[in-house]
Amino acid sequence: MAMLDIPDKGEIYLRDQCLTQSGVDLNKARARIGFVFQHIYLFRHLTALKNVELALNQVLKLPKEEAHKRAMDALAEVKVTGCAHKYPSQMSGGQAQRVGIARAIARNPEIILLDEPTSALDPELTGEVIDTLRDLAKEGTTMLIVSHEMPFAREVAEEMIFYDEGHIIETGPPSLFFNAPNTDRAKTIHDKNHK
Predict the structure, then answer these.
(1) Longest distance between any two alpha carbons in the chain, whole Å
(2) Which of 11, 50, 59, 154 is least surrounded by Cβ atoms within 10 Å, i.e. has the fewest?
(3) Number of folded domains in the chain?
């Protein structure tokens, strides 16, 4: 969706801009998108603070003081200011993933793309990350999240897309998906979650 891989067909729009159209400045478009990857990709040789400041300095070209303030504000928003001067090896998985989220939100993107942000975490750390995402959703942050965490999706999603074996099976608000699924495949998931 952020054109890190170029699609074979279809169109991708970020607001009114078609990203799949030739001649689009993809670097400029990507600067409007936040990324949180499935695996926690923090630079190991940088502290949490420096990981968050990096894109602010390099991509947005912010003055050092402003980048520092925005990075600290983002770390505070995801409740990891205590990790600001720690390296990734000194943090728990949940803390590191929240630093990744801070890195994404510090740039004030129009949308944040999150790919299974809790998949590499144990249940306790998963809860930390889900709480952070829940808070961002309440603030109105636009996020597109790939997740198997059905209770979380039910709580925060405005729109759900059930994707299976490379195909969209069902779309709609969580109330429809969880209470009255239309397809047999979605009903199977519904039944598993209500036993």
Answers:
(1) 55
(2) 11
(3) 2
Q: Which domain holds residue 79?
A: 37-128
Residues 18, 62, single domain; the answer is no
Q: Which two three-digit tokens encode residue 81?
A: 């200011």
pLDDT for the residue numbered 189: 67
In a domain, 157, yes or no: no
Q: How confident is the model at residue 191 (pLDDT cuts 50, 70, 90)?
A: low
**Is residue 96 within 8 Å of residue 43, measured between CB atoms?**
no
Reported as a single tens digit per residue, the pLDDT across 57-100 is 998 899 999 999 999 999 999 989 999 999 999 999 889 989 99
**18 and 45 assigned to the same domain:** no
Compute φ and ψ for 162, nearest 5 degrees.
-90, 115
Q: Indicate whether 140 belongs to any domain.
A: no
